[in-house]
UniProtKB/TrEMBL annotation, chain A:
Keywords: Cell membrane, Membrane, Transmembrane, Transmembrane helix
Membrane topology: Multi-pass membrane protein
Organism this protein belongs to: Pseudonocardia adelaidensis
Location within or outside the cell: Cell membrane
Bilayer-crossing regions: 25-47, 54-76, 99-124, 131-149, 169-191, 221-239, 251-268, 275-294, 300-319
Identification of the protein by name: ABC transporter permease
InterPro entries to which the protein is assigned, alphabetical: ABC_transp_permease
Transmembrane helix found in the keyword field: yes
Automatic annotation (TrEMBL), chain B:
Extent of the signal sequence: 1-22
Record keywords: Signal
InterPro entries membership: Peripla_BP_I (IPR028082), SBP_2_dom (IPR025997), TAT_signal (IPR006311)
Protein name: Substrate-binding domain-containing protein
Membrane-traversing stretches: none
Domain Periplasmic binding protein: 39-298
Length: 321, 337
C-alpha cells in the first residue's frame, strides 16, 4: 500500500475540519455520552444495561427511520406518534374480538400505512403543505384511536408477542433485531436504489427533479406511506413491550423522532441525510435518559438535559459544508 | 353527522331521564329534596377515570330522579374548551352545578356567572383555587375529592407490610412538577417506616412504556431494589412488566394508585402487590347527592374525602366484582340520615 503516506494528511485534516464533526454530530455525541456515563457509573456499560438501552430504543429507531425519509424530501411527519397509537388501537380492537395475532398485526400495519397514504396523497397530489396535513393527521389519528378503543386500554397477553419482547439472539432482543433490519433495508433503499435517489432529489430541488422526469407527488405519497407502515410496525413493538394496546397520546415519541432526525444530520430543508445518523440520534436520546436515571439525577433536570443536548448537536451543524 | 347523532343521544337521554323522573315521582324515592336538574362539567372522557365519574353522576341522577347533563372537556389540556362548556351551561337554568376543573382557575368565568345567579356549586375531584373562587365571588357548597397524600400514605403502609425486612424502594412519578403526582409521592415518603428507604425518584410522564424503561434501568443499576411505588396504575403495570422481564415477580413489590380494571386483575394475578384504589364513580355519585342535600337546605361539610381503599391479593376478587363501587363500606355524609 504505497498510498498510506499520501493518505495520512487528509486524515489529520479531517480531524481538524469542523464540517466532518458536524456530519457526525449524533455519533460524536453518543460516544461522548457513553464515555461520560461510564466514568461516572462503572455499571453503565454492563451487558444488562446495554441490552435494556437497546430494547428501550427500538420503537424510537423505527419511527425515526420513517421520519428520516419524510424529512429527506423536505417534509415533516408530525403524525408518526399518533399513527402508531391509531395502529395500536386497531390491533387492540381486533385482539379484543379474538381475531388472532397475525390478523391483528396485519390490521395494525394496514391501518398505519393507510394514514400515511392519505397524508401523502393530500400533500403530493393535493398540494397542501406537509406541516398542515400531518398536523391534521396528528389530531385525526389520535381521535380515531380514542373512538376505536373507546378510550380504554386493551390488555394483550399472547405467547408470540411475549417472545418478541423478551426473547432474542443472545443479548440482542428481537425488537432490536427488527429495528436493525429495518435500518439496513432503509439504508439500502435510500442509497442503492432509484427510489432513494429520487427521494433525495425531490427534497434537494423539487423543480429540477420534476424537470428530470421524477414525479415528486408520487415520491411524497411513497415516503408518507412508508412512515405510516413503520409507525404500524412500531405499534406492534409497543404492544409487545407494554402488554397492552392503549389509546394514549405518546407525544414524547413525536418530539424525539424529530430530534433524532435533526441530531442525525438530516437537513430539515430536505435533499440530504441518511439512515445511520437518525438511528444514532435515537440511540443517543435513549442513552441520555438511561444514564441520567442510572446516576439518580432528579427528574426535574432530565428534560432540561435533553433540550441542551439537542440544541448543542444542532449547533454543530452550523459548520456543515 | 356527529352533531346530529349527539343531539339524538341527548334527546334519548332526556327522554330516559323524564321516564325515570316520573317513575321516581310516584315512588317518592327522596325526590322532594332533590333539585330538579343538575349540570356537571368534568374533565376529558378520553380517560376511563372520568368515564367512571360520568357514569356515577348519571346513575345516581337516575336513582334520585334528577334530570342531569354531563359535559366534558375534549382532553386533559382543554382548559378553555371546558370553560366554554361551563359558561354555556351557566346560561341555562339548572338547579345545581357540579364542576371538576382542569386547572384551579380555568372555570372562574362560569363560576362568577353561577355566583351572580345564586346557584349552588359542588366542586369534585380537582379543587377550584380558593383565591379564584373568592375573585369570582362564588361560595362552593362543598368539595369532594380523593386525598392524594392519604392515598400515598396507604401505599407506604402497604409497602412496609410487603417488605417486613425493609430495603430500598424506588418512586416513579407522573409528569415532573404535577401536583397530584407530587401529593401522592409526598404521602408515600412521609408514611414509610424506618426500615424502608427511598433509593431514587424518577418521572415517567404517567406512561406505561416510559415507566417500563425507567424501571428496567433502575433494576439494572440497583439489583437490590425491593419495591416500586408508582403514582398511577398505568405506570405500575409498566413497572410490573419490567419486574417480570427481570424474572423478579414476587421478589420486587410494585404498588400503585388508582384501582383501574387492568390493575385489579394484575393484583389478583400477583403482578402488582397492591393498588390504592380511588373511586371516581363514587365521587360522581356524591356530587349529585351533595346537590340534593344542598337543595334540601342541609348544611354541607366544607370538604369530604372520597373513599380510597387498598386492594391486595386478598380482596382483589371482591374489588373486581364490586367495581366501579368500592368493596368495603364507606362514609357518605350527604345521604346519612
Amino acid at each position: 500500500m504505497t498510498s498510506t503516506a499520501t493518505a495520512k494528511p487528509p486524515v489529520t485534516a479531517a480531524w481538524r475540519d469542523p464540517g466532518r464533526w458536524a456530519d457526525r454530530a449524533a455519533a460524536v455525541g453518543l460516544v461522548v455520552l457513553l464515555i461520560v456515563f461510564q466514568l461516572l457509573d462503572p455499571g453503565f456499560l454492563a451487558i444488562g444495561n446495554i441490552r435494556s438501552m437497546l430494547l428501550a430504543s427500538a420503537i424510537l429507531v423505527v419511527l425515526s427511520i420513517g421520519q428520516a425519509f419524510v424529512v429527506a424530501t423536505g417534509g415533516i411527519d408530525l403524525s408518526v406518534a399518533s399513527t402508531m397509537t391509531f395502529a395500536a388501537a386497531l390491533f387492540g380492537f381486533g385482539f379484543a374480538r379474538g381475531w388472532g395475532l397475525p390478523l391483528c398485526c396485519v390490521v395494525a400495519l394496514v391501518g398505519g400505512t393507510a394514514v400515511g397514504l392519505v397524508s401523502g396523497v393530500l400533500i403530493g397530489h393535493g398540494r397542501i403543505t406537509d406541516f398542515v396535513v400531518t398536523l391534521g393527521a396528528l389530531s385525526a389519528a389520535s381521535g380515531a384511536a380514542l373512538v376505536i378503543a373507546d378510550g380504554k386500554p386493551v390488555t394483550v397477553v399472547d405467547a408470540g408477542l411475549l417472545r418478541l419482547s423478551a426473547g432474542g439472539i443472545g443479548p440482542i432482543g428481537w425488537s432490536v433485531v427488527v429495528a436493525a433490519v429495518l435500518a439496513v433495508v432503509a439504508h439500502v433503499v435510500l442509497f442503492r436504489t432509484r427510489v432513494g435517489t429520487h427521494v433525495l432529489a425531490a427534497g434537494g430541488n423539487p423543480e429540477a427533479a420534476v424537470a428530470t422526469g421524477i414525479s415528486v407527488a408520487r415520491i411524497k405519497v411513497l415516503v408518507y406511506a412508508a412512515s405510516g407502515l413503520l409507525a404500524g410496525i412500531a405499534a406492534i413493538l409497543l404492544i409487545s413491550r407494554v402488554g397492552a394496546a392503549e389509546p394514549a397520546s405518546n407525544t414524547s415519541f413525536l418530539l424525539n423522532s424529530v430530534a433524532a432526525v435533526v441530531l442525525g444530520g438530516v437537513s430539515l430543508a430536505g435533499g440530504r441525510g441518511g439512515i445511520a445518523g437518525p438511528v444514532l440520534g435515537a440511540l443517543l436520546l435513549t442513552v441520555l435518559a438511561n444514564g441520567l436515571t442510572m446516576l439518580g439525577v432528579s427528574p426535574f433536570y432530565q428534560p432540561l438535559a435533553v433540550g441542551v443536548v439537542v440544541v448543542a448537536a444542532a449547533f454543530l451543524t452550523r459548520w456543515r459544508r | 353527522m356527529q352533531i346530529r347523532r349527539r343531539a339524538l343521544v341527548a334527546t334519548a337521554l332526556a327522554a330516559g331521564a323524564a321516564v325515570a323522573l316520573t317513575a321516581c315521582g310516584s315512588g317518592g324515592d327522596g325526590g322532594s329534596a332533590a333539585p330538579a336538574t343538575v349540570a356537571a362539567v368534568i374533565k376529558g372522557l378520553d380517560n376511563p377515570f372520568f368515564q367512571a365519574m360520568e357514569k356515577g353522576i348519571t346513575d345516581e341522577s337516575a336513582v334520585a330522579g334528577v334530570r342531569s347533563t354531563v359535559q366534558a372537556a375534549t382532553s386533559i389540556t382543554d382548559t378553555t374548551g371546558q370553560a366554554d362548556k361551563l359558561t354555556g351551561l351557566a346560561g341555562q337554568d339548572f338547579g345545581c352545578y357540579v364542576v371538576n376543573p382542569i386547572s384551579g382557575t380555568n372555570l372562574v368565568q362560569g363560576l362568577a356567572q353561577l355566583a351572580a345567579a345564586g346557584k349552588p356549586v359542588v366542586n369534585i375531584d380537582s379543587p377550584v383555587d380558593p383565591a379564584a373562587a373568592q375573585a369570582a365571588g362564588v361560595q362552593l357548597a362543598t368539595y369532594i375529592g380523593t386525598d392524594n397524600v392519604a392515598a400515598g400514605k396507604l401505599a407506604a403502609e402497604q409497602m412496609s407490610k410487603a417488605l417486613p425486612g425493609g430495603g430500598p424502594v424506588a418512586v416513579v412519578g407522573g409528569i415532573p412538577g404535577d401536583v397530584t403526582s407530587g401529593a401522592r409521592i409526598e404521602g408515600f415518603k412521609a408514611g414509610l417506616p424506618g426500615g424502608v428507604t427511598v433509593l431514587q425518584e424518577v418521572a415517567a410522564n404517567w406512561e406505561r412504556q416510559e415507566a417500563l424503561t425507567q424501571a428496567t434501568t433502575i433494576i439494572g443499576a440497583h439489583p437490590d431494589v425491593k419495591g416500586f411505588f408508582a403514582a398511577n396504575d398505568d405506570m405500575g403495570l409498566g413497572i410490573a412488566r419490567a419486574v417480570a422481564n427481570a424474572g423478579k415477580t414476587g421478589q420486587i413489590a410494585v404498588i400503585s394508585v388508582d384501582g383501574n380494571p387492568d390493575a385489579l386483575t394484575a393484583v389478583a394475578n400477583g403482578e402488582l402487590a397492591a393498588t390504592v384504589a380511588q373511586y371516581p364513580y363514587v365521587i360522581g355519585q356524591m356530587g349529585v347527592d351533595a346537590c340534593a342535600a344542598a337543595a334540601s337546605g342541609a348544611t354541607l361539610p366544607a370538604k369530604v374525602d372520597a373513599p380510597v381503599q387498598v386492594v391486595t391479593k386478598d380482596n382483589a376478587q371482591q374489588a373486581i366484582e364490586s367495581a366501579p363501587k368500592p368493596p368495603a363500606p364507606y362514609d357518605n355524609p350527604f345521604t346519612a340520615k
